[in-house]
Each structure stands twice: as C-alpha cells, then as structure tokens.
Design brief:
By secondary structure, this protein is of the alpha/beta class. It contains 5 helices and 12 strands. A 9-stranded mixed β-sheet has the order 6-5-4-7-8-9-10-11-12, with helices on one face. The protein has a 3-stranded mixed β-sheet with strand order 1-3-2, with helices on one face. A hairpin with a 4-residue loop joins β5 and β6. α4 packs parallel to α5. The N and C termini lie far apart (141 Å). The C terminus is likely disordered. Part of a complex composed of FtsB, FtsL and FtsQ.
Length: 269
C-alpha cells in the first residue's frame, strides 16, 4: 500500500510539473505572437559611416518581398541575413533586432572595380558579383577584364602589376584579357594592344601549364624599358600592336598611314 501511494504521488507530481510547463510554454507562445511584435520597420544604413551609392529602400523591399518569416521574437536572423545578401549590390548585411517591432540593417555595398566578361563585375575585394551596370555612376570608368571561370583574382593581380609598371610611362589599362589557353592581351589607354603570351606564373589556376613561357613581370619590364627609346625612333607614327612573345625583343604593327591630302575649295566671287 505504501509503495502504491508513493507511485501515485510521483505520477501526480510529474503531471503537475508537465501542466505548469505546458501552461508557461503556451503563455510564451501566446505572448510571442502578439501583434505588437509584428515587424513593421527596417532601418537601413551603411557600415562604418560610408555612403550607400547603389542600395536603396526600394531595392531592399523588392529583395525581401514575401520572403521574411516570423516576427521580432521568432525571426531567424541568420536566414534573414542571407535573404538581404541576395540583393544585387549588397556584399554583406549585418542585422540586429530593435525593440519591439524593428530590424536594424547595416549594409556593406559591392564597390565595383572592373567589368568581368559579358555581364558581371569584380568588386574591390576581387569577388565576382552581378548587378545592373546601368546603375553605375556616369563618371565611373571601369576597365574591362576577361578570362576563364575562376581566374578573376589572377586577372586582378596582373592588372595591378601592369598599372604599377606603366605609371611612369603615363599609360593606363583599358582592357585585359586572359585567354582559355592562359595567354595575355592588354589594351592600353592609348588604344595600343600588347600581346604578352602565356603566363608561367599562373600554374595554380592554369590547366595547361606555362612551360617555356616568359614570366609576366619580365615581359612587361622589357616593354617598359624599351618604350621611351622606341618613341624617339618611330617619329610620331601610331602603333596598333606590340607583340611581346619573344624572349629578346618584340614586333610592332603600325597603324595604316593616311595619305589623303586635304583639299581646299575656294569659290570665285
């Protein structure tokens, strides 16, 4: 009889505790789903006091429309962060709750550095992203980069080397292309083309290898050292192409010479 009484008391206590837990859980659920916690505002600002050039409240609204789940209490900030980062110009999103019905969104934008292939861009971190290029600032003059998938960081690296080498010559780079065979072509700011050949320094990403090729730095250094002397010898003629795929020199292709003479027309009075 004593054991039965103890068992009965234990069961009763367990039931009572479970009832309390259910009651508390129900209360929390009821409270968490009150209308006062429905998300009604999202504040947007740039990180580190920067300016947002491309992201707007309208673009963010278009990104999240119909996708946010939950309220102030129940929303999953990790999953919500991923949704915000699908917005074209958003590189990173930083979220926190603002009591009792808001979210604070800090945005790090993609900073466009160059165009990549047909319809993508590379940001200043060397990362690919896709966004509406028509939204670029009208004063933006980005170089065009072209290359195989996965080679964008190498192209950025080589571009930086070119800019550094060419700066004393007051020449810039309009376009740089890495072919599928990992050979380089460069269009300079004076519309002259440099044909630089295969890149042995691209072994990490080059499936074809670079055996027998001259290093990228050696090739461009050879051109930079020869260019001032060459300018004195070409007597002002325009060069269309410089072929640097030689170990000890290079070949020039001149622009066609316009032999058309101007004709003056004088009317008799």
């Amino acid at each position: 009889m004593l054991n039965n009484a103890r068992a009965t008391n234990l069961i009763a206590n367990v039931i009572a505790v479970m009832a309390v837990i259910i009651f508390i859980a129900g209360g929390i659920y009821w409270l968490a789903h009150r209308p006062m916690f429905n998300l009604s505002r999202i504040t947007i600002e740039p990180v580190n006091g920067r300016v947002l050039n491309y992201v707007s409240p309208a673009s963010i609204q278009a990104t999240i429309a119909g996708k946010l789940k939950g309220n102030f209490i129940t929303i999953d900030l990790g999953e919500t962060k991923k949704i915000f980062e699908t917005s074209p110009w958003v590189r990173q999103a930083h979220l926190r709750r603002v009591w009792p019905d808001g979210l604070s969104l800090k945005i790090e934008e993609h900073e466009p550095f160059a165009f990549w292939n047909e319809n993508q861009m590379i940001n200043t971190w060397g990362e690919l992203f896709s966004a509406n290029q028509a939204e670029l600032n009208s004063e933006s003059e980005l170089p065009q980069f072209n290359g195989p998938d996965g080679s964008e960081r190498l192209v950025v690296q080589r571009y930086a080397e070119l800019v550094r080498w060419l700066a004393p010559l007051k020449l810039g780079v309009n376009e740089i292309t890495l072919s599928d065979r990992y050979a380089w072509r460069v269009e300079l700011s004076n519309d002259m083309e440099l044909v630089m050949g295969r890149d042995p320094g691209a072994d990490a990403v080059n499936p074809h290898g670079g055996q027998g090729a001259v290093s990228f730095a050696s090739t461009i250094e050879r051109f930079v050292r020869a260019w001032p002397v060459l300018q004195n010898r070409i007597e002002g003629r325009k060069i269309n192409k410089v072929d640097l795929r030689y170990t000890k020199g290079f070949a020039l292709t001149y622009a066609p010479v316009d032999n058309t003479l101007p004709v003056d027309s004088k009317e008799k009075k």
